[in-house]
Amino acid sequence: MKRKISELILILFFYLMQVSLARVISIANISPNWLIILPVFFGFFAGKNEGMFVGFFAGIMYDLFFSGLFGFTALVFIYIGYFSGFLYQKYEVREILIPLALVIIADFGYGFISYIGNFLLYNRLNVGYFMSRFILPEVVYTALVSLLVYHPIHYLCVITQQGRERKKKGKIDEGSI
Fold first, then answer.
1. CATH topology of domain 2-159
2. Could you state, in order of their start, the residue ranges of all structural domains in the chain?
3. 3-state per-residue secondary structure call for 108-153
4. How confident is the model at residue 94 (pLDDT cuts 50, 70, 90)?
5. What is the per-residue pLDDT for 143?
6. What's the predicted TM-score (pTM) here?
7. d(C-alpha 150, C-alpha 99), whole Å
8. CA-CA distances (angstroms) from residue 108 to 3, 49, 102, 104, 177?
9. How high is the pLDDT of residue 168?
């Protein structure tokens, strides 16, 4: 219960960062997607279920205030949390490149799916312009922000973990030989 409440507070905090600070630190009207970082990191740190939980509520917050199609972002964020959870306990937490690659893939995928839903279906076919002007700069900016928040989110996951032990890479089986 303590973990769920802390996750909801963190989602609310990242939403406030998306609404307020993102406009202040935007470069050429491109701002980082703060809310897409959460399902990736929680899926990687705590598994598929936590990634989907955080993805659902982060997506609902995003849909309530940014999206015209309610539920679309929540569904995409749930999938992002689920697929990030596949790598739970597969890699050491010190390996920051894996979650960073997950954030890049997730943000690119979300941007491309948003392009298909919002522009391509309305016969706006200039994919190159949309990629170079909106998707790729946001991916880079979100990756930089995720580098800054990686360790604080990991620390929060560690202190709210309920007795679960992360599988140690390279640990030898200590059974009867």
1. Arp2/3 complex 21 kDa subunit ARPC3 (1.10.1760)
2. 2-159
3. HHHHHHHHHHHCHHHCCCCHHHHHHHHHHHHHHHHHHHHHHHHHHH
4. confident
5. 95
6. 0.83
7. 9
8. 29, 23, 10, 6, 48
9. 45
